[in-house]
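Supplementary Note 3. Input sequence used for the single-chain structure prediction.
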Amino acid sequence: MNVMPIKLRKSRKDTLSHLPADPEDWSLFVVRNRLRLVPSFVNCVFLTRDAHIMSASRGKRQLSAARHTLHYLSHVVFGVNFTQLGKFTYRDRTSVANGCRRIEDSRDDPSADKLLFFSELALNEMDNHMHGQVLGGQNGAGLDPR
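The predicted structure, written as C-alpha cells, is reproduced below.
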C-alpha cells in the first residue's frame, strides 16, 4: 500500500503564516475554504476527479455536467458570484453563468431536480457541521429542553 506522508505544522505561527495578510484577500480565502466541499461532493456523485473537472479542456459530456453542477451548487448553496467561481475553477465568468443556466434548466426533469435538491441539502448540512453551526436551535433538535 502506497501512503502519502502527512506534513505536520510545527507551530501555530507556522499555520498563521499561510493566511492572507491583505483583508481584501480574506473574502477569496473564505470562499475557497468553503468551496472545498463542493468538488469533493460532485466527484463522489459523478465518479470523477478534481483534475478532470478543473482541467482546461471541456472534457466529455459527463465532465461538463459535473463541472456545471459544481458551479450551480457553489452559486446556490454558498452564494458565490460567477467571477469568484470562475477564478476557483479556471473558467470565464460567462462560462460559469452558462453552466448554472443549463443546470437550472435541467431541473424540469423530476430526477434531476431530486438529485439537486438533496445535493443542496447535503452540502448545507456538511457546511453547517464543519463550521459548528447547528440548525434549529442550540440543542441541535430545535426542541425545548424542558
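Residues 3-17, 134-146 have pLDDT under 50 and may be disordered. The longest helix spans residues 110-130.
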